Amino acid sequence: MAQPSKKDELSVYLYIPNIIGYIRVIINCGGFALCYTNKPLFAFLYFFSFVCDGLDGYLARKFNQVSTFGAVLDMVTDRVSTACLLALLSQFYSPGLIFLALLGLDIASHWLQMYSSFLSGKTSHKDLTDKSNWLLKAYYGYRPFMAFCCVACEVLYIILFLYADKESPKLSDVSMNIIAERSLVSLVFVLTLFGWAIKQLINVIQMKSAADSCVLYDIKRTK
Q: Which member of 14, 24, 152, 212 has the greatest number of CB atoms within 10 A?
């Protein structure tokens, strides 16, 4: 089998979806650099980067430029940006441990899923053809459902970031104040809470399912 040339490697790095991935990294770095001095601009940049996440997947399929590197770049960018936002929220709210626990769950769930997928010889962590859990299949198999859960999580965190109040750092107080406003933001907040809860349940199920796959791989390897 011929070794890939430098030109071949460069062509993958320069796939349109991967270029969008690099732009997302730059946008996120710029946004987090401004997170303490310009919260609205940070929120805009963060959400714009999130929108680009959906765009690069669409372009990857449209131009037949799906790549393992692109999938890893996409996941790492998603996980790091969400982790940084959760870390920020842990500073603004009490108890901050809630957000740190969500950070740990998010990283552990996706890392285990990615690793178990590669052990199984799959090209994507979204390939769940051999999984039996109906919620995981619905999440990865029906894009509008996955999009709702993902958008709900990110929008919820952005709202909490924008409404963070140093004088009232309790998460429960701020959440109740947002709902009590009876505004469009209140409605969005309640809807995103629902999608957020489903996403956390999926993270737990995914982590357990991926751990089971790793154990089964060990058992098959030792036989």
A: 24
Give the pLDDT of residue 221. 81
| Spans of the chain, pLDDT less than 50 | 1
Are residues 155 and 192 in contact, defined by beta-carbon separation less than 8 angstroms? yes
Q: Given 56, 78, 165, 212, which residue is catalytic?
A: 78
pTM: 0.88
* Distance set, CA 159 to CA 42, 57, 114, 178, 220 (Å): 12, 25, 29, 9, 47
165 among known catalytic residues: no
Residue pLDDT, tens place only, 8-56: 667 889 999 999 999 999 999 999 999 999 999 999 999 999 999 888 8
Going by C-alpha positions, the residue among 145, 154, 212 that lies closest to residue 188 is 154
DSSP assignment of 1-26: -PPPPHHHHHHHHT-HHHHHHHHHHH
Strand partners, 170: 94
Residues 6+ apart with CB under 8 A from 75: 110, 114, 125
